[in-house]
């Protein structure tokens, strides 16, 4: 019997949901870190490595989401409402998708120069997934509800920050950029990066509605 | 004891859902009115005021959606299916988000000249949120189901009208606008404005599936 | 008594859900076929007919989705979880919407020349809706779960293919297209066509979570 089957035997069935959510939490945070580091990197080679790493992480996330849905089908009893698990899994998957999409856009749109706006977005994305991770890791014990609520509040704060970065960046872009193709590239990339934080906020909102049922 | 706590004491718990939905219904309708009036305004100063007012209303709406989710967590018994309340709250929140996004885009994209297409969209958005309000206000009594169904039908009709305005406007834009940056601005704004009515239709569809359970 | 009422009398109530899903499955597959054929057509007249046919099919689909939601409201007992029916109906409706949107964009954006990328997308959309149809038709009997799982796997495969077509097409576009308005048109159309396969994948994911409950 392999270690995996052994652990499975002695894990109460609904505990599997916490494990997967924690795995996703870590994964999203690592994706954000890799993405941010690449945008602060000077060497192109490291950026290429970033894409390869992110693609692997995004697939790992897809696979985790798939396992969540399979467990949802197999388990009659779940640690919180089935619909909450469904929503949460879906919105966390969206976070990974949009980080991956943003990274790909830099390549697809042939963006050669990373600017301060992109770096600011990557910082705020890292902060948002960091706060989201704290909230997700708190779900297993539910012993410090205030810490979870505070973490969700931070996710909302960072989404708000991303919104302000986007508004300011778009205003600047439409006032100054006279090359329409450059304008399209940057506008799309900025909007995709801001969407990452929207998806973090969606996830935090589901977590808040989960913990309210326990308080 | 404050008036608020007093009212709460004597309100059956599930009535709180109707109150919040009615508050949101009014709020969306006022947002549409403020937005439409600003597009018919000649003076720039009034447009600036419009943005400030809309931002406050959008926040009020966010806060109402938040309260809906909190109540959903606290109340075991809800006036209609939990998942319907969840969907409805989410899609109504999207209506507010897209009105606010459309208003911001006019500023962010530095659009100086309001045209007939934008005004036509703002009219149809006002009509759609007006019909949506009638449907939402009917939920409390459920005594005139036909009036609710008719109001939902009107929301669908206005969404269809917005769709036609968009098709016609895009066709015209791609045939006549030779300045690519102008084309991008208008295309994005038109699509955002049309999305407001899509979100109204999503909300009306949930309302229809709620009332069918009572007929 | 008309044949329709006769059949209805002798059909267990929850069977109606299978019938509507099968109708939608066929409809989406025909839409994809009509769309693909038009993109391989040389004569403009036939393309105009395509739009008329697609509009009628899209309306038929809207009407089927509406019936699904009405049945969901009327029937207390459903063949699978209510929330799964809800999600599935919604995502299948999105498939139809994005096929119709892609077809309309060709007209709205005044795209005169159909290229190999568009044809490749139309092929992969046809394959994806074909596999989706197999999965949907398998739901009634649930006797060959492996066949359903395989079909869902194929939908995911085709979505992946569409993703690769999009990445390659965008990279090529941003490297070679110097006319910004042409670039906007093609970028938007490609993204809409790729979204059709995303919505097919969403539908396949719900089907997988349904059948896992039966295995």
From TrEMBL, chains A, B, C:
Matching InterPro entries: PhoU-like_sf, Put_Phosphate_transp_reg, UPF0111_domain
Cited Pfam families: PhoU_div
Entry keyword annotation includes Cytoplasm: no
Keyword annotations of the record: Coiled coil
Membrane spanning stretches: none
Gene3D superfamilies: Phosphate transport system protein phou homolog 2, domain 2
Keyword Transport set for record: no
Coiled coil residues, start to end: 40-67
PANTHER family per the UniProt record, alphabetical: UPF0111 PROTEIN YKAA (PTHR37298:SF1)
Family the entry assigns: Belongs to the UPF0111 family.
Protein's UniProt name: DUF47 family protein
